[in-house]
Design goal:
- The protein is mainly α and 276 residues long.
- The protein has a domain at 46-235: f41 fragment of flagellin, N-terminal domain, CATH 1.20.1330.
- It is built from six helices and four strands; from the N terminus they run αααββββααα.
- The chain has helices at residues 9-34, 45-99, 106-129, 171-174, 183-236, 240-275; strands at residues 131-132, 135-136, 149-153, 161-165.
- It has a two-stranded antiparallel sheet. A two-stranded antiparallel sheet has the order 3-4.
- A hairpin with a 7-residue loop joins strand 3 (149-153) and strand 4 (161-165).
Length: 276
């Protein structure tokens, strides 16, 4: 009858349990130090992937809010300039009515014409010079397609955008020429001016509508950003009370594992000595 003694089994088992305890200790320490359950991709690969997608969405929504605010600033500049053009056209209309009165002579109308020409030139200068970040806003050439259409990336993903087309506010487009020095010119002037003022109102209405849409969008995506950030936090952030308890347990088990391994190694060595 024969028997055999494998002196390595106890040491191997002790070593395995000690390694497992040390791995748990390292994972717990990593989670606590980083504040995240995903301090290592090996901890939860699928959870890390979802968390990264949520994080990208939160960042994207933040940039979309900034984009929308910048576009609102641009639209406000355009609207302020259009207000100045509108004021000038109001004055031009008043002067045209004045020139149409039969109590004025040709010299009086010539003086009025000079003021009208000055106001028209001022309005044209506003339309041609108003810009945002070097981009012309009121001459019909702004935007990515150079046709007055401005697109705002108002969401976190491709296709999440809003567009506004700012019409050409130059006098040649809105009004053309005004001549109050002749009867025929005065007869045509009021209709031309009223048509031009309607064009100004249409442009300002478009600007106001676009601002309201962007403000509504900011309100909506701000709430979405908060909810997505909360979902990411719930998935990723460490529960420090629970993880501290896990760390204490893992630390104790690691110490026990080290002690057990040393005892198993010592026992194997003693047994080998006795049999030697």
């Amino acid at each position: 009858m024969s028997f055999s003694i494998n002196t390595n089994i106890a040491s191997m088992l002790a070593n395995m349990h000690s390694n497992n305890a040390n791995n748990s200790l390292n994972n717990s320490l990593g989670n606590i130090s980083s504040g995240s359950y995903f301090s290592s991709a090996a901890y939860d690969a699928s959870g890390l992937s979802i968390s990264n997608q949520l994080s990208a969405q939160v960042s994207g929504l933040g940039q979309a809010i900034q984009n929308s605010n910048e576009s609102i600033g641009m639209l406000q500049i355009a609207d302020g300039a259009m207000s100045g053009i509108n004021d000038n056209m109001q004055r031009v209309r008043t002067l045209t009515l004045q020139a149409s009165n039969g109590t004025l002579n040709d010299s009086d109308r010539a003086i009025i014409q000079k003021e009208i020409d000055s106001l028209m030139e001022s309005s044209d200068d506003i339309a041609k010079s108003t810009s945002y970040n070097g981009i012309k806003l009121l001459d019909g050439t702004g935007g990515s397609s150079a046709d007055g259409t401005f697109t705002t990336q108002s969401g976190a993903y491709s296709g999440d955008n809003q567009s506004v087309t700012i019409g050409d506010a130059q006098m040649a487009t809105l009004v053309g020429s005004i001549d109050v020095t002749t009867q025929a010119g005065r007869d045509a002037a009021l209709g031309t001016i009223d048509s031009g003022m309607q064009g100004i109102s249409d442009i300002r209405a478009e600007l106001g509508s676009a601002q309201n849409q962007l403000l509504s969008n900011i309100s909506n995506i701000s709430l979405t950003q908060v909810n997505v950030a909360a979902a990411e936090s719930q998935m990723k952030d460490v529960d420090f009370a629970l993880e501290s308890a896990n760390f204490s347990k893992a630390n104790i088990m690691a110490q026990i594992g080290s002690f057990t391994q040393s005892q198993a190694n010592a026992s194997s060595a003693n047994l080998a000595g006795l049999l030697g």
